[in-house]
Structure formats: structure tokens, C-alpha cells
């Protein structure tokens, strides 16, 4: 039993990874903040404890990491200030809100989202009401037998103080979410890392025709924009709680905010920089529909992003496939020619290098294998399309190559009974082809040997060495070989070599930190 009479409420963050938003530390998701606001409004005198699945893993492993120091352990890396009391807090909680995304583990360098089995083990410690929030709710609704008895209520999109223990299948209006929003100090102070706040601008997709595999039309079939004032109010509250890193990333396309309204987008970016968060350290975007970026207004918006946002920014664009057969079969509206124009617009606006050694804004590319219509020819078309971008002398921040996952309710989910596609067998080797033919040569172009990148910090140690980065959207990672530096030390690094997914560097003698 708790030694205090205050009610205990728990948020257990098992992380979310979605096409339209990230909720893996250091990113602080919209789900976590909505849950905190709902609990605080419904129970203003309660203690609200924020836990991660890493806290639970730490306790269940006897208070030990799974990797031996000085190596960092991705399973317990993102622990909070509540780590030692995680199981006790779960046992005391009158309500536990579980935030969870994909049913399949998503492995990142410094994190791994909670599996269904891990969530079940954590909930075995609870006696109070158990509430699920996030994309995992759709899997639970699609297969209730597999999740039977785990949750008392499920929320697929949002959570408010009015529906906390009831469950919802639709997103709450933005003004209702704003009514629960308040001081974030109580949440931020529990984190053991410096967070990047994921900011949502709207729901839904502005395209007239939707891609068959996309989950956004399932989540939000109607486009609903937040007002500039609502966004600025949330940023100001987070800034007031000490946050200095922001990513406008929880939507399908930043460039399509307010239907590509250039003046409104400039107002949003300018007022974030000048009033809502004047001393911010990072302002980045995520998700860019190449159709929007390739348009005349897209070229103007790219210049606004390069002007008002901070360097190292990335506009990830989904070509998904260069294969005409896959494009036609899956109603993909981006063609290689459209993508080329979009990449050129972003390069023209942001390829120039900022004072810290990073380009102001570069495109990212997204490819998906495993879509209907795929053949061995698909891989050839993808390689040929990427080589054309290389040969044109264009710059790209990164490429993301993944296999398609069917989200419940999408057309792709209805096609899963088909014969296995070639990428089921060949994905690993095909991805290695892209690494060697496109990604590594592009790293050599964007980060030439001898380039100095400043204001990095050490954040992870593996057998390769110490990994350094800045906080932001898909930051470049600089590996200092054969070292085990203390975490969070500041460093300036000079590039010495390249790999497909990161670069190598040597620490500048004048670097600060230990």
C-alpha cells in the first residue's frame, strides 16, 4: 500500500511507431500528452506517474540491464525517474493507461516497443482499471479473443477526461483535447531524457485517392485541420515546461497543412520561432507528400521550412515503389517524375549547409516492399530509379526501406491470403543492394570526409563504439569507433568514413564534455 492518501494513476508508455508519427523516446508522443491531460483533468489531486516499458523490463530483470556496461541496453535505455518503483506504482494505480502501437516489435538502436506479452506481464501487476490507447487498440478490436480480459476500455485515437474509462473509436475534437491541456511540468519532470515533442497539425489525408496500404484513411476518413492558434498554444505550454525540441510530424504531409496555404504555413512557422518558442534548439518537420512538394506552392513551402526551421531537417517522401505495375495496382499517385521534381524543389530550398555542418533541409525517401503486384522486376525498377537520383547530383538525407504491414481495415489487410511475394524471401538481400548502391554513396555526398558537425551529444554505446547525434527528425548518427564515452557529453565531430545508415567521425580536440 502507498504511504500517501493520494490516488495513484499510471501512464505506461510502450511506444508507438506510425507512418504519421513517432512515439519512441526521445520523441514524446501526442498520445502520452493527451493521456496526461485527461488524467490530470479528471483527477486533479492524484499522483500521475509516467512509466515506460523499459522501467518494467528493468524491474522484471532484477534491477539489471540486459547488456553489460559500458554497452548500452536498448531494452532498458529509456527509463524514467520512476524506474525503481515501477511495479509498485502499477500495483497501486487506480487507473493504468497503456499506450501501445504495433503488435509486432519495432526495433530501434536505443529502443524496442513493448510486445503484447510484455504488456500482459506488466498488467498482471495491476489491480485498477486498465485502459488501452493507441494503434494497438485496432488489433485488439479486430481480434478480441487474443486480447480477452487485458483491458477494461480501449481508445483507438485519443483520450479525454470525459471518456477516460469508457473507450472510443473516433478521435475527439481538437477543442475537446485543448480543454484537457495544461501545465506539462509534472510530466516532463519524470523523464530521464531530453524529449522531442511530436506536434500534430491535422488528421486525415488530403489526397483524393488513397494508397491501399495506408492506415490514415482508416484512422481519420475526413481531413480535420488544427488552427494555428491551437498549435501555438500547445507549443507554448511545452516550451514553458522546458522543452526546446519540436517536430511537426504527426500528420500525413506537412506541406498539405491547410491545403498548402503558403501564408498560413509561414504564419505558423514564424510565430513558433518568434513567440511560442523563441529560444528553441530544434524545429523540424516530418512526412511530405511528393505530390504536394512537387507543386508550385510546394516549392514555396520548402523555402519557408528552410528559412524558419533549424538545420538537419528532413522531408521524408513516399515514392513507395518505382515499379509502374506496383504503382498502378496499389493506386499510388506518385510517379518517378513527380518524385524527381519534389526532390529538386527541396534541394533548391535547403541543400545549403548551416553553421553547424548540416544541410538546412533535405528530402528523405520511403520505399515499401511487399505490396500487391510486386515481382522481381520491382527491385530492378527501384534500383534504377534511385540511381537516376544519384546521377542527377541530388542530395537525400536518408532512405527508409521496409516491408509492408497490413493495418486492420486497409485494403492491403484483405489481400493477405495471396501467395507470398518475392520480397518475403529476398528482402534482406534487396535492402543490402540499396544500402550499397544508393545509401552509402549518398552519405558520402551529403557528409564528405573532413566535414565538421558541431553540437552533437553521445547517446549510445555498442561494440562499434560511441554513437553521437543531435535531437531532431531522423538525425544523422556519427559513430566514434572503439570508444565508450559517458552518455550525453557534448562533442564536435569530423567525418572520417561512411556506412549506409550512419557515418564515422573523430572527436574534435576542442569538444566539451567528458
TrEMBL record:
Highest taxon of source: Bacteria
Molecular function per GO: catalytic activity; iron-sulfur cluster binding
Elp3/MiaA/NifB-like radical SAM core domain mapped to chain residues: 195-433
UniProt-listed Pfam families: Radical_SAM
The protein's name in its UniProt record: Radical SAM superfamily enzyme with C-terminal helix-hairpin-helix motif
Species of provenance: Sinosporangium album
Amino acid at each position: 500500500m502507498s504511504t500517501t492518501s493520494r490516488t495513484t494513476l499510471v501512464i505506461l508508455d510502450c511506444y508507438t511507431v506510425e507512418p504519421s508519427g513517432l512515439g519512441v523516446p526521445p520523441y514524446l508522443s501526442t498520445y502520452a500528452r493527451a493521456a496526461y491531460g485527461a488524467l490530470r483533468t479528471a483527477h486533479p489531486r492524484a499522483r500521475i506517474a509516467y512509466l515506460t516499458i523499459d522501467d518494467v523490463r528493468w524491474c522484471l530483470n532484477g534491477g539489471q540491464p540486459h547488456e553489460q556496461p559500458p554497452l548500452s541496453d536498448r531494452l532498458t535505455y529509456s527509463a524514467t525517474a520512476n524506474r525503481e518503483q515501477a511495479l509498485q506504482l502499477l500495483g497501486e494505480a487506480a487507473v493504468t493507461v497503456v499506450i501501445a502501437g504495433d503488435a509486432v516489435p519495432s526495433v530501434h538502436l536505443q529502443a524496442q516497443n513493448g510486445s503484447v506479452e510484455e504488456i500482459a506481464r506488466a498488467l498482471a501487476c495491476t489491480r485498477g482499471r486498465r485502459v488501452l490507447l493507441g494503434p494497438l487498440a485496432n488489433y485488439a478490436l479486430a481480434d478480441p479473443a487474443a486480447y480477452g480480459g487485458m483491458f477494461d476500455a480501449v481508445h483507438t485515437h485519443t483520450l479525454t477526461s470525459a471518456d477516460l474509462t469508457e473507450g472510443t473509436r473516433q478521435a475527439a475534437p481538437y477543442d475537446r483535447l485543448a480543454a484537457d491541456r495544461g501545465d506539462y511540468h509534472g510530466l516532463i519532470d519524470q523523464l530521464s531524457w531530453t524529449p522531442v515533442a511530436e506536434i500534430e497539425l491535422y488528421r486525415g489525408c488530403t489526397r483524393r485517392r488513397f494508397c491501399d496500404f495506408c492506415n490514415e484513411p482508416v484512422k481519420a476518413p475526413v481531413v480535420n485541420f488544427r488552427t494555428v492558434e491551437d498549435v501555438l498554444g500547445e507549443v507554448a505550454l511545452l516550451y514553458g515546461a522546458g522543452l526546446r525540441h519540436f517536430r511537426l510530424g504527426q500528420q500525413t504531409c506537412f506541406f498539405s497543412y491547410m491545403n498548402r496555404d503558403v501564408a498560413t504555413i509561414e504564419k505558423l512557422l514564424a510565430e513558433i520561432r518568434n513567440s511560442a518558442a523563441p529560444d528553441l534548439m530544434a524545429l523540424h518537420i516530418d512526412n511530405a507528400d511528393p505530390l504536394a512538394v512537387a507543386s508550385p506552392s510546394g516549392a514555396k513551402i520548402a523555402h519557408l521550412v528552410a528559412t524558419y526551421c533549424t538545420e538537419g531537417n528532413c522531408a521524408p517522401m513516399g515514392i513507395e515503389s518505382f515499379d509502374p505495375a506496383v504503382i498502378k495496382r496499389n493506386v499510388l499517385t506518385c510517379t518517378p517524375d513527380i518524385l524527381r521534381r519534389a526532390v529538386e524543389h527541396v534541394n533548391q530550398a535547403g541543400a545549403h549547409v548551416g553553421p553547424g555542418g548540416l544541410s538546412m533541409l533535405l528530402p528523405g525517401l520511403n520505399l515499401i516492399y511487399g505490396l500487391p503486384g510486386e515481382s522481381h522486376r520491382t527491385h530492378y525498377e527501384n534500383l534504377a530509379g534511385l540511381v537516376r537520383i544519384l546521377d542527377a547530383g541530388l542530395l537525400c538525407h536518408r532512405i527508409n526501406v521496409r516491408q509492408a504491414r497490413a493495418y486492420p481495415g486497409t485494403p492491403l489487410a484483405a489481400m493477405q491470403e495471396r501467395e507470398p511475394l518475392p520480397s518475403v524471401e529476398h528482402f534482406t538481400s534487396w535492402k543490402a543492394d540499396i544500402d550499397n548502391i544508393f545509401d552509402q554513396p549518398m552519405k558520402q555526398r551529403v557528409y564528405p570526409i573532413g566535414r565538421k558537425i558541431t553540437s552533437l551529444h553521445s547517446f549510445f554505446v555498442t561494440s562499434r563504439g560511441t554513437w553521437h547525434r543531435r535531437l531532431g527528425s531522423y538525425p544523422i548518427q556519427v559513430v566514434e569507433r572503439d570508444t565508450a564515452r559517458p552518455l550525453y557529453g557534448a562533442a564536435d565531430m569530423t567525418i572520417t568514413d561512411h556506412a549506409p545508415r550512419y557515418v564515422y567521425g573523430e572527436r574534435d580536440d576542442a569538444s566539451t564534455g567528458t
